[in-house]
Q: What sequence folds into this?
């Protein structure tokens, strides 16, 4: 549960950095930041899904 809370907090704080009251402001840089962040986030989710799927299938084979 600690790790879930940590990941959730990191997601929220990283998204807050990209908004208008912070350094990036509005415009292209703001959009690029969001695209990069959510692209990396999606890649991590997919990689985690495949990891746990493979881990589960290895348990069944044993």
A:
């Amino acid at each position: 549960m600690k790790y879930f809370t940590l990941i959730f907090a990191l997601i929220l704080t990283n998204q807050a950095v990209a908004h208008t009251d912070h350094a990036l402001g509005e415009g292209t840089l703001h959009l690029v930041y969001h695209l990069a962040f959510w692209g990396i986030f999606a890649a991590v989710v997919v990689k985690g899904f495949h990891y746990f799927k493979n881990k589960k299938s290895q348990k069944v084979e044993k």
